[in-house]
Write a structure and sequence with these properties.
Chain lengths: ~350, ~350, ~350, ~350
């Protein structure tokens, strides 16, 4: 009930702080027979790792190998149906000296809300508010991806906009190997120079990530509170920095007429996919398409107006090198969350079928 | 697990089909001592009733009194802490003769997905896909609103855009009494003429609804998977026709710089509210502000391209009078869903300090 | 979380007080296609009804027809897969004048614990502590029994001991038609005279009920916390007045040697069934056999030592006609609870192979 | 849903197999500020360790240090409110050569049911069926015990009967230091010689364990499906080898008259405790008293009748040294399970209160 477990049938429970011994989790409900080993999980973890290729100039300083170790649930390269425990050791644990920072509430950060909730700024919230918490999501999501792959379901995530500069979705298949997880080779230089300029201004950037799942059979999702799109919205919005979730046409649907928004049905499929692959909360066999809006990183180099823990005004200036855009780190996390929802919904459907 | 229950501590379970004896539900987990009687619930139900004042020209033909009856959990005008059972009888049960419609998949509707999921078009999905299912949500939400009121938390929902025409949020307090639940008296005529024109074209309209909760104490929400905004996204996206959910600046946050998006912190509060009252998934004491994008109603008067249940092309033309915009019906439902999340989160948080 | 919902996939949520408008509930997760109508539920309700044939001399004064009404989820005699709502109106609502009783804590009753929990003796606890709450369990259990019947699983419950006088399980098949739900025609006269004598003494009797499920396939149950026997123990112990739950050999297993307790395995089955049909928490294909010990009814005619709500000593003497033994009322409830567990476990297991 | 998580607010999720890298789990929902470090958990683990003092002659051959490592959720000797991850490495992993055993179904074991459930004898079930799974329960229970201690709630478990030979509960306080966890110094020699004799016969013994919780405030537990005794029954029955659970007078209540079974209420308490500290599913302030019947260990040295995996008769003779009685290993597990229920119920009550 503290919200560290996600899912109904395929369930991920996570633990770990950024400056503790490590992070990890338990995947319960994964059927036996899914091909899985540490390399399968490591591949996904490497995508979100600070300083991974995709991060590029937007990346962070902290270096973490993020090496996963499987603790149970896998035997001779396949899952056994028992809970899958995994752990990632924190190598770079040195607590930086925050100095006066510790006495200030950083705008856009959870400092002030954790203080309100727990009365203790570092206890409880502290480590869990850190982006490092998402390491466990990516590891758990990797198990979900392996299960989905067995059912010929593929999940992709790529960046469709940074700082207001949109990408064309021309080559999503190779976005994973491209800088910023871009589905569009041509936009990369523009994004790079934007990151360069914004860094010079001591500012940061937001963007939009699209997650697409192909091969999803029609019929997944429950009709009332647990609609497939509702679960996906929950999953994506649970990732820090996400401020909006769209399905299919999303916000644009508010401006379309019914005659424009409806997807004409043709033998074997649909003409368009404004629905994003979901009708009445249930998958319709088209690709599932959802987007998440990622806010700009709140830690900026410019001086900011804030207060200290005693409620007194205190200007804040954060030094050191910073991330400019969270996108490269968030893309694999959003992919993992979507995979968790799809794996869970798939198993629930098989049970109730 | 069929998704007819929502919530963790304050839980709503619903039942009922549009053409069965009636609809209702059970609210479990409501503490004792909350002032409640049928009139409190009826007030909310009347807001969503087909043909209610707010519906105006966009409204539907079906007439339902939607009179609620409390079956348990209330004694002498206050809740007793036991489960609160309620029931709303369907008066207008006559099954319209759908004729050939029954053999066609209506674009934008769940016909085709229910068929895929249940193998039976009317069984299971049928009644639950209907908008009438939301009657139980509004009734359950009314109980949540009563609980929240005891804690000086007020939830409002109003329309901020229809068919691309935005409203200014000048008077949200009286939006509930205004046509289209508009927070802006001046935009109403424009919306009315837009509805008039679009009806003439045999088309329909979408829009955007904003839900605002004031008086929410700082500290509500869990830091990882059950962030307050994640639960709200789940709740709002679970309402049929919703295609996007935004928190605070929402989609706009993708285009703002960190220096623009951060809310400067001042003694006793914040300068702005781009965060929508939530930081790191936890309420910060500012008003909670979320928006839901509602797609245009899929039932249009124009002929549409579709297939029949045998997969053969079959043009569809739906006769009769139709709703032009779902907004007037959806506003009270979105308000109810937000109230359910806040009541549940408030109870989970209580005594944690 | 207030514990008015039971089950994981096949879930029953109940509501209602003994002196309110009525009692009822919602069954969620029942698949489509299960033959069901009000008569199927009524048959089970009639078995537990105060003053039903089986109650005999042990029965109560209160007369309730307990007529069930289906509110949703059933169409043309079969379930549709949507939630099944049902309601039973309280006819005999007149609140008896408890007089001074209201100021005393009755020994063996929940008066004192509800007061401690809710601070209000009647609020919350009041009606839910009443035996009438079990009406909803029997109705929900009837749906489970219908589902199980489709899978050729039969559940029986019968009385194996009253007041220390055991019955021989010679004819469980017709126990349902027999006084006290006795599986043994010969013991009935002994039980009748025992009830007669104990009534004369102003005292009450307890007993033991056995629940047997045949046709349960091997493989149901989860290996760790949700063992099939653990769920059954939870279910049976949740029925008021139950003080012990046994599986198979039960308490006797503590005195047997391993060589005596082990069930020799033979082609196609087992020699004995000390395991009660469950090994390692998973069904083994033999009949599931569990027993529940029911304590004597706490309301006796003799004067008792107790205190009033102010904590002062106050002798208690309850007048009027009383039940002598809860067994006849409890048997159908225990049967229902076992059916709920089996239906839920069966659905969870389905398609897992 | 695979049943590897236990609890509602205070939740334990476990993983691990007897012959994998290790075992562990995650405790979610533990509030911040509970004094905890590895030694606190180790103390409980040492009690159940194969070959621990208490095991005595009944003990096993396998040697496991069972050293626990905390992975998260604890900072400077107190819990932080974040999930508490822990891991115990398997040292003695060498898979014994089962030889022909692998082809036979051992009577009283889960071999045959796992085969029926998973189609694979070792996969899934294998490791989780092993008694080693309970290591994680004891570790999680240790956290619960630490939380309860903060509220002056103490939980004790001791052996009240072995092989039909009962103990007098004269000194439960020091049972933990005594052979067989006996509350009675005088019975130990009798139990020792009984174990000696039964070993000579190649047979095994069962027994009864009592768990007692003192300092439990009145008011814990929910009135309907989640009665405190129902949760305790679920918890204790989920431990392998347990065949019966009793509360207070337990089975004996079936033979008492109401006048004998009722606990007279006196100022400040009760005269007796036949209720076992629970009335109407809610704690009454008296000590909570529950008992679990443990069946004799199914692995005996005598030849047994069974079949092989092809369904053919095949006599089974197990060689090597065996445990004679599971009691010494099970006592700390039952204590842990009771602690988990009480911690969970305590936190739920605080939230709803």
């Amino acid at each position: 009930m503290s919200g560290n477990t996600f899912g109904r049938i395929f369930r991920l429970t996570t633990y770990g702080e950024s400056h503790g011994p490590g992070l990890g989790g338990v995947v319960d409900g994964c059927p036996a027979g899914v091909p899985l080993d540490e390399s399968v999980i490591q591949r996904e973890l490497d995508l979100r790792r600070p300083g991974s290729a995709s991060a590029g100039l937007a990346g962070t300083a902290r270096k973490e190998p993020d090496t996963v170790r499987l603790l149970s649930g896998v035997f001779e390269g396949v899952t056994t149906g028992t809970p899958i425990g995994f752990h990632i050791t924190n190598e770079d644990q040195r607590s930086r000296d925050y100095g006066d920072l510790a006495k200030l509430y950083r705008p856009g950060h959870a400092d002030i809300t954790y203080d309100a909730k727990y009365g203790l700024r570092d206890f409880r919230g502290g480590g869990r508010a850190s982006g490092r918490e998402t390491v466990s999501r990516v590891a758990g999501g990797a198990v979900a991806l392996a299960l989905l792959a067995m059912h010929d379901i593929e999940v992709r995530a790529y960046t469709v906009e940074i700082g207001g500069v949109p990408a064309d979705v021309v080559d999503p298949a190779s976005a994973q190997e491209r800088l910023f997880f871009s589905p569009d080779p041509d936009v990369v230089p523009a994004w790079e120079s934007l990151v360069h300029d914004v860094r010079a201004e001591g500012d940061t950037l937001g963007g939009i990530v699209q997650v697409e799942a192909t091969g999803v059979p029609a019929g997944l999702g429950e009709p009332v509170f647990d609609k497939l799109d509702a679960l996906l919205a929950h999953a994506l919005m649970s990732v820090g920095a996400v401020k909006a979730v769209e399905v299919g046409a999303g916000l644009e649907a508010a401006r379309l007429r019914g005659s424009e928004n409806n997807d004409p049905i043709i033998p074997g499929g649909f003409h368009t996919n404004h629905a994003g692959g979901i009708l009445g909360g249930i998958s319709n066999g088209q690709p599932i398409v959802v987007r998440a809006t990622v806010k700009p990183i709140p830690s900026i180099a410019q001086e900011q107006i804030t207060i200290d823990t005693n409620g007194r005004p205190a200007p804040l200036r954060v030094g050191g090198r910073h991330d400019i855009c969270a996108i490269p780190r968030v893309v694999p996390v959003l992919k993992a969350m979507a995979a968790l929802v799809l794996a869970d919904t798939l198993l629930l459907q098989r049970r109730m079928g």
